Structures are given as C-alpha cells and as structure tokens.
Amino acid sequence: MVFAITREVGEALASCEISFIERTPIDIELARRQHAAYRDVLRTLGCSVIELPALPGMPDAVFVEDVAIVLDEIAVMTRPGAASRRAEGDSVARMLERHRLLRRIEAPGTLDGGDVLRIGRKLFVGQAARSNADGIAQLRECVDEFGYSVQPVATHGCLHLKSAVTQVGEGTVLVNPQWIDVSIFAGQRVIEIHPEEEHAANALRIGSRVIHPLCFPRTRQRLVDAGIDVLPVDVSELQKAEGAVTCCSVVFDA
Whole-model pTM? Predict the structure, then answer.
C-alpha cells in the first residue's frame, strides 16, 4: 500500500511565506477545490490518502512535504528554514510514527523536505534558502547507517531543490538548468523544461506515472515525447503560495 499524507488548505493561505515570486491574491475556495482534485488524482494512482485538518494560523501547513522525509527504514522530521513553520510537523509526526522510526533535525540545523530529492540510495539536498549545512550534516548522520549517501546541491533563484529538479522516471530527471548545475545529474537522462516555463521542473512521480502542473503545456509535451505518462493537475492558486505538486503530500510505501 502507498500512503499519501495531505493537509487541508487553511483560511490563512494568503499570508504564506513568499521568497522568490511576487505576492498575488489567492482565491481560497478555488485553492481548496484544486487541492481536492489533487487528492483525487492521488487516489486514482492507488494512494491511500490521509487528510489532516488545516492548522489555524499556519498558512503554509498545506505544504506537508517540507516537515518530513520518509525513507524505507525511517522518517526524519525536519526543522523548516522558516521559523513560522516549525510547529507544523507535530501531527504529521504522530501519523508517521505508526509506520516508521522517527528521527529529528535539531537547532541550529534547518532542513525543508522540498530540498531533498531521493534517487535510489542517494539523497540530493538543496543548500540555499531554507536548508543549511548543519541540517544537511544532521540528515547524513540520520541516514548513514541505512546505506544512504547525501550530496549537497547549491541552488539559486528558487525556493527548494525540487523547484529545480525532480525524478520523472527510472534514470530520468526533469530539470531547470538555470537554477542548478545539471552536471550533478550526469548519470541520469536529463529532460530540460521549456525555457519559458521556469517553474515547470516540479513533478510528482508515483509508480510509472507523473503528476505535473496543468499550466506548463510545453514542458509537459517534452515529458510526453520522452515517453513519460503525465497526469496534469491545476494547482494555480497553490502556486501563488510558492507551492507545487510535490509539496502538497508526503508519499511513502507502507
């Protein structure tokens, strides 16, 4: 069984943290409908969807990916780089401790789940806006005994590593080459986003299919041309909160 932890969109979403995009008005009710449709797609792909309630006064809590990293053996509760987000993980931890041994990133380390890209037994970790060297070092200590390696990756111009690169197939990554050094992924087949769709590198792979934002048709065509089975979803209002398709769920095998 594959689980997907999600959280309802809260009333305060419009007060979310913003770092690399301009703040624009968010339609909360539309965001909720889009999030519900996103959850439906997860179910279509065979996920057992866990719906946590919104957290009052925590506008970014819908982006549950950032508070936890779930591996085969353990789950690591992060310490988000934005101080306003550090209380979001408690209910996620209570859910995850039913399935995994928990470990935690402690101060002064910071680490966002959106900065961690797992490919096999290697964890690529973005080091820039929200995740610092201490947090990455602590993650390495947490996972070393289980045979995972950790490679820091410098990012620039984007919030998280998975804003710039995600895995879309076995041995295949989708990349924005303006935000990371693509040579780090030299062992992978690299699909570059369309240059006019700079936020299009964030995709969520579940099994053999990939969830991708509806608003990036030219990048989606590149995926399709590469043989990737794509499911487009409209997350336009969540994107206004600097969100995307990976950050709205924590997906893991039971």
Answer: 0.97
